[in-house]
Amino acid sequence: MGANNGTDVQSSRVLQVLGALAKTPHASVKQLAESTKIPPSTLYRLLAPLVASGFARKTSNRHYCAGPVAVQLAERYHDSEPGNGEILDVLSTLAEASGELAAFMVVRGTEAVCVEEVESSHTLRAAYSVGVAVPLLRGATAIALLSRMPVLQREEIFEHYGVGSAHRTQIEVACAEAKAAGFALSAGELDPGIWGISAPVLDGQQHLAGTITLMVPIERSNNREEELIKLVRRAADSLSEGMR
Predict the structure, then answer these.
(1) How many angstroms separate the CA atoms of 133 and 128, rounded?
(2) What is the C-alpha to C-alpha distance for residues 132 and 112, in angstroms, rounded to an integer?
(3) Is 186:195 a contact under the CB 8 Å cutoff?
(4) What's the predicted TM-score (pTM) here?
(5) Residue of higher predicted confidence among 192 and 8
(6) Percent of the chain having pLDDT more than 70?
(7) Which CATH number fits domain 81-242: 3.10.20.310, 3.30.450.40, 3.30.1490.20, 1.10.3470.10?
(8) Residue 148 in contact with residue 175, Cβ under 8 Å?
(9) From CA 118, how far away is CA 101, in angstroms rounded?
(10) Considering the domain 2-69, what is its CATH architecture?
(11) pLDDT higher than threshold 90 for residue 228
(12) Tens digit of pLDDT for each residue in 2-16?
């Protein structure tokens, strides 16, 4: 039993390190220790086999970053992603019709991660990129995703972030409204001056696959809300249909 527990802890720590490397272009052992709460001496032992196997890479300035195997994994993810490669086509259509940044976001643990995006055609635009992760606490994407999760899964996320009872109630109300409406809206909750709308995408078993999210400078969303809501919901419905 003790040996199994030790193996489980070791595996968990390796996954923590990989998760930390996924969030930054490069990091020192000190930075990794701060983000993972793993002692530096243990990190060195964990990083050595990751570097040897290609999951991580050591830079010339003794920092660590994702290795070449991570690129291969990313390619295989895109090969097998839900929607049979339709996600990028749907996002491109949405970005062209709206003139704004369109993204596909998925749940990873307690965060929402961008796995595909198509940029706005405007010079003044929202800044976002593939790989960016945000906490599942606030903003249109978070509420749209949370609204389609089982209650127990939401509770685990609340516990992870230490969300108080009043804030939990606020989020639960927002989730109920988003589920009833079929979309969630936000204005300046994650980035000042950015208006967002997210609609959930469901697969053939009606399980949550992710969200279609549109990010717009607030000044350009004025008097366009209804139009943009229709475009996003149409895109989400199209992608959901393609997954059935």
Answers:
(1) 10
(2) 8
(3) yes
(4) 0.75
(5) 192
(6) 91
(7) 3.30.450.40
(8) no
(9) 6
(10) Orthogonal Bundle (1.10)
(11) yes
(12) 556 667 788 888 888
